[in-house]
Sequence to fold (160 residues):
Amino acid sequence: MIKETIGTLESALSHEILISIIVIIVLVMNLRASLIVAGLLPIGVLMTFILMRLFGVEANIVALSGIAIAIGVMVDIGIVDVENILRHLEMPENHGIRGKKLISVIYQATTEIRAAVVTSIATTIVSFLPVFAMQAQEGNYFIRLPLLKHLPYFQHLFLG
Fold:
């Protein structure tokens, strides 16, 4: 039963990523920008699984649930970043730029909103502090959820 549940959750995780990619394409209405955000989702999840393996964390129901919850926030962060970059690139003074100037505009657009994104992530992390204080069996079981929920946030923040 547990293996069946984990299989179902893994399938749901795959479907969530696929649906998120479709929603990103529809909402952003820019294929290149959508592909960038959508491409970072599997990379972020893969990095999470690599770190889980390095730290010896099993891919159980709680761990996979944490990752599934994190995907929504990862999409939000990606869309906020891409929308601000597109807004900067559409400014009249930035039409047709290339090379170092393009990288400079992208960097400026990203750093302009980075404080708000970091604050948003920090607020989410702080809201889970009571879970970290749990002890005994509950603590051992539920500690994986906030850890694996927040791990993709940091990775996506880094990738963004």
Q: What stands out?
A: Helices lie at 2-28, 31-55, 61-89, 100-127, 129-132, 136-142, 144-159.
